[in-house]
Amino acid sequence: MTVEEILAQSRTKTWKIQQLILLGKTRNEIAALQVLGAYGAIQNVYAAMQRNGQLPSRTTPQASPRQTSSQIISRNVQRISRDASAPATPTTTPTVAIPPPQTATNQPQRENAGNLISVIGNRQLKPVTEKFGIEIEAFNVTRPTLRDALVNMGIACEVEDYNHRTRPQWKLVTDGSLQGTNPFELVSPILVGQDGLFQLKKVCTVLQMQNARVNNSCGLHVHFDASQITFPILQNILINYMNFEEEIDSFLPHSRRNNSYTQSIKNHRTAVENARTMQGLISAFDGRYYKVNLQSYSRHNTIEFRQHSGTVEYEKIENWVIFLHNLIEYSKNYKFPRSEANFEGLKKLNQKVVYDFLITRINQIAA
């Protein structure tokens, strides 16, 4: 059986791991699929097979990869955050409920740093529950081949010409801005909460198995449902993103910091702060090619975040989605003080696992 056929079987994870090992896949390769558990779980199955004499003769033990703290946290980041000196440890994102939000109003909000940080420090972070959508730009796989692989994994998908219509299934379309052999844009249907993230994880597994690749022409776009987003909340989202824009830039590649498709929104601060209506916010920007795109509000009733670089790695996409979700949830009640919008501020807005991941990305990009 192929990898796809093994994963599609209605069998236990242990059985699937055993079959992949017998197929000749290494433990690191199986862990990279991100659907059968972490490396430790796969190692346990491997060890049991080794004790029972079930391993192929060519299979040899592998050393578990190790990283030092100096590889994970850069010296510059250590100066910013005393708590970021240890390697990121994968954990489950907290799923505790946030207290009912206060009602946002059109009145100017006081930026009392002391009170605000106290509130942030005591608040509990809400899990992703809202509707969202993903657009993954990549290349190196023909669209029919990728469609068939997704369908074989139980994910409905169709090949279409370029369009902006929302479908009930995933769709593969063309995009003239993409470079590379067999470029494509994979657009999700409306995804919801944790179930949506789980489906996204399966899609990323298929993309990696099909050897989909990305380059500097590729991006990752995330849409969030804006049907319940009022004018003051949207204004807060834009201002908070502006305030943290330099920090966000630092954990994304240089190619995504201010190119023609992901322009900075900081230069529009005055227009955003002076706006008094939803249309005033939308009119503050002259198109959709900004890090935060409000044209999608008029067309799809969503807010589109365009800044992230192209990727087919679920861990990167998941952390970016949760980061944006946290920013939106916070913006429903508050504007973060501009003077406090630094890495310490990001720590207060995000779960530790997300913050640690961002620090790791900064170190990787700076290397």
From TrEMBL:
Which Pfam families does the protein's record reference? Amidoligase_2 (PF12224)
UniProt keywords, alphabetically: Ligase
The annotated regions of Polar residues compositional bias extend over: 55-79
| TM segment ranges | none
Here the segments flagged for biased composition (Low complexity) are 84-96
Record-level Gene Ontology MF annotations = ligase activity
- Cited InterPro entries: Amidoligase_2 (IPR022025)
Q: Which PANTHER family match?
A: AMIDOLIGASE ENZYME
**Protein name, UniProt field:** Putative amidoligase enzyme
In this chain, the stretch annotated as Disordered covers 55-111
